[in-house]
Design brief:
With 329 residues, this protein is α+β, with helices and mostly antiparallel strands. The protein has helices at 2-19, 36-42, 48-58, 66-74, 79-88, 164-174, 193-202, 210-218, 229-232, and strands at 110-112, 119-123, 126-130, 147-151, 155-158, 205-206, 264-270, 291-294, 310-313, 322-323, 327-328. The protein has a five-stranded antiparallel sheet with strand order 1-2-5-11-6. The chain has a four-stranded mixed sheet with strand order 9-8-7-10. A two-stranded antiparallel sheet has the order 3-4. A hairpin with a 6-residue loop joins β1 (110-112) and β2.
């Protein structure tokens, strides 16, 4: 008899707990759902049937997760409570949107620099074999050892050598002497390394490193030159004994003209022997007496028009077969 009364009392208590209004209903709707910490405090003190009623009525404020499951069970929650929490839990917050980063230009993309009006081509990052090309029997010792180099950041490079017209803008804006020659499409010559560096700074750019220059000249080619010499370069046998207008020969795969032949091009590096151990964005020796030049020129033999061929001059030298092109970030 006593056992039956006890069971009736428990049932009545559970029924009363279920039917008693949920305290959360006295709060603003946005404050009604239970937090995980609050539920963990309630679980040991309330019957499961009351917990289920409260959670059904008020909801929970936290998303369901394996960690929430472990914490609730650790507080003593039964399966029925777990199930209703799982059902009432709000969906997880969506991940934050990915930042809208600017896309890197594609290889061969072209921009016009507003200062000098010249076209610049995007050179993507990559890895190449710098120095004497495999099978090239015309290499000099300073083109060795061949070594792998990574250019880790893309950059813009002048599609042509700097022209007389473009350099004229620079000279006029900075009170310098006008360039030699009157043909606007000719490459500017008779410029020192300091002249070249000053021009590149004026357009917001810089001289390319020797590694960047060779990487751009090769444009993926592993050969000594990116085409037949007469198709891509001006040299002593086809130039008519002087520089020629830019972009009159075939471009390489990066759409760059006259990377070989026409005029020598100053690069930023001091001249020195290769250090094969520096395989990422090498910048040349930290100091020196001569600056490096690349590409060959109109007064040399065709076998000098090779991607790995290099010479040196003192920075103050200016000659009618020395020009340059700029890099631009």
């Amino acid at each position: 008899m006593m056992r039956a009364c006890l069971l009736l009392l428990l049932a009545a208590t559970a029924l009363a707990q279920t039917q008693a209004p949920a305290p959360c209903l006295q709060r603003p709707e946005a404050e009604r759902p239970y937090s995980l910490e609050r539920l963990k405090e309630m679980i040991p003190n309330l019957a499961s049937v009351r917990l289920v009623y409260l959670i059904e009525t008020c909801g929970v404020s936290f998303p369901w997760s394996a960690e929430a499951d472990r914490e609730l069970r650790g507080a003593g929650a039964e399966d029925g409570v777990i199930e209703v929490v799982r059902r009432k839990a709000p969906a997880p917050a969506p991940p934050p949107p990915k930042p809208n980063l600017p896309k890197e230009p594609s290889a061969g993309a072209i921009r016009v620099n507003p200062k000098d009006g010249q076209k610049y081509v995007w050179i993507p990052p990559g890895t190449f074999r710098m120095g004497c090309s495999q099978g090239d029997r015309e290499c000099y010792d300073d083109e060795k050892p061949a070594h792998d180099v990574t250019i880790s950041r893309g950059f813009w490079l002048g599609q042509t050598e700097v022209t007389v017209e473009a350099y004229g803008r620079f000279a006029q804006a900075n009170g310098r002497s006008a360039p030699t020659g009157s043909n606007a499409r000719m490459p500017v010559v008779d410029v020192s390394w300091d002249d070249a560096r000053g021009y590149c700074a004026w357009i917001g750019g810089r001289l390319p490193s020797e590694a960047e220059w060779e990487y751009a000249a090769r444009a993926g080619s592993k050969a000594a030159r990116y085409g037949l010499a007469d198709e891509i370069a001006w040299f002593n046998a086809n130039s008519g004994k002087g520089p020629r207008e830019v972009a009159a020969k075939r471009a390489n795969a990066f759409l760059l003209y006259d990377m070989l032949g026409n005029v020598w091009e100053w690069v930023n590096d001091w001249y020195g022997n290769y250090t094969a151990s520096i395989a990422r964005d090498p910048k040349g020796p930290p100091q020196g007496t001569h600056r490096a030049l690349r590409g060959g020129s109109w007064n040399l033999y065709p076998w000098n028009a090779r991607a790995s061929y290099r010479v040196r001059f003192e920075p103050a030298y200016w000659l009618n077969y020395i020009g340059f092109r700029c890099g631009w970030e």
